Amino acid sequence: MFESARLPQKMDKKTFKKLEPEIRESLLAPQLEIVENKKFSTVILVDGLDGAGKGEAVARLYGWMDARHLSCNAYGEPMEEARLRPPLWRYWRDLPARGETAIVFGSWYQKPLRDRVYNKLSDEEFSKELERIRNFEDMLANEDVLVLKFWFLLPKEDQERRLEKIKKKNAARHVLSDWAALKNHSSASEVGEKIILETSTGNAPWFVIPSQDAEYRDSALAQTLARSMKLKLADGEPRTVSAPPVIGGVKRKTAIDAIDLSAKLDRDDYEKKREKYQNTLSDISDTKAFSKRGMILVFQGNDAAGKGGSIRRVIRPLDPRIYKVHPISAPTDEENAHPYLWRFWRRVPRRGHIAIFDRSWYERVLVERVEGFASHEDWLRAYNEINDFENELADFGYIICKFWLAISEEEQLKRFKAREDTIYKQHKITDEDWRNRLKWDQYAIAAGDMVDRTSTHYAPWTLVSSENKRHARVEVLKTICKRLEEEL
Q1: Is the distance from CB of 61 to CB of 220 less than 8 angstroms?
Q2: Could you give the angle at which helices 214-235 and 13-37 cross, rounded to 10 degrees?
Q3: Number of domains in the chain
Q4: Where do the coiled-coil regions begin and end (predicted)?
Q5: pLDDT tens, residue by residue, 219-245
Q6: Residue 152 is assigned to a structural domain of this protein
């Protein structure tokens, strides 16, 4: 998960130096307004793996903000005074007054995170701890505390280099916590992802910050903080779910941006591979093992990316009695009168069958988010609700494959024009498709957030270049066959 934050995000020092005065102004203005009106206090949690530069980033914040109204609290193992009291006592003790801002290292997440990494907590016990934390943070928000949580993400190879440099300099070693050190990178990252997914709420959102480049990292932290404080000052509504799309003129990369659109397949290779995977799919779908499981396929992507063509190649070798294609459009009045997942629960297949969704429940965090059909609070909470929904399906035995089919703006324009010029394709192009093109960047950000927050081990996203239709169709078939072979 959080593939976007693992991409190399870089800002050159010249751009950063030019941006610094703007960053300072964007932070100071809302901070001083908060100090003056005392409507709320701010708590900033700084978390993530060792070596990600959390201390450096906070040091810069101190240089950019009014330090007289900042406090920094770092928590390690509780001292005797804290051990004699409930675990949350020391955090309550240090809460800032209205108008003030506190930065927290080693927050209330540290102990459950560490204990889960070391298997001192079961899954059930860990979930209960996270529920307590959610309740605590909801209560803080209801008492006019702006809670912002930042997770500094660092790929393993970068963490290894950073920790080696720290070791050589003999600096900051006292802050290293072995749960987050290199040997526990995988388990700490996995547990961290679970924490972010289960405790990022409208009241207390998590922001995942790419930390390979210090200038980009610190700019993203500062601008996200400034943006969140301004929003809270303006209307008191929940904050943004991600960093701004542009940091100092540098466009934030998402997992969608990283798709290699140059992938191609010539006709001969396509025919051979398509036939191979279609035969495999036909054979597997006819087995006794499959009859006890079942499958759910989700197709999302840019308009005109070829979802329909890919679906047709999937269903061609299948017995029509075992599959159903569900084209999803705007909800009906009846569907709008129910919770948004209701219409998808009604389409869940029986064991041994396949449900294919041409667009899906992900429209809540795509179209409904971008077009404003869902409130910020509604689409923000949808990530967790969707993960829970898919987890329940997977626990019952369904194999879930989700595909994002991607094309470039230029290729989309070509396909739109071709649809307009071809009589039997004209029904595929609508005024809405043209309007959506005007919001290309907004949809790209929304799709990147969607992949980051809902690509799980039980329902992973497969990002497919569809610039070349033959490549996309084979990639879809191959992925489905591979998942079936692994699961059955």
Answers
A1: no
A2: 30
A3: 2
A4: none
A5: 999 999 999 999 899 876 545 555 666
A6: yes
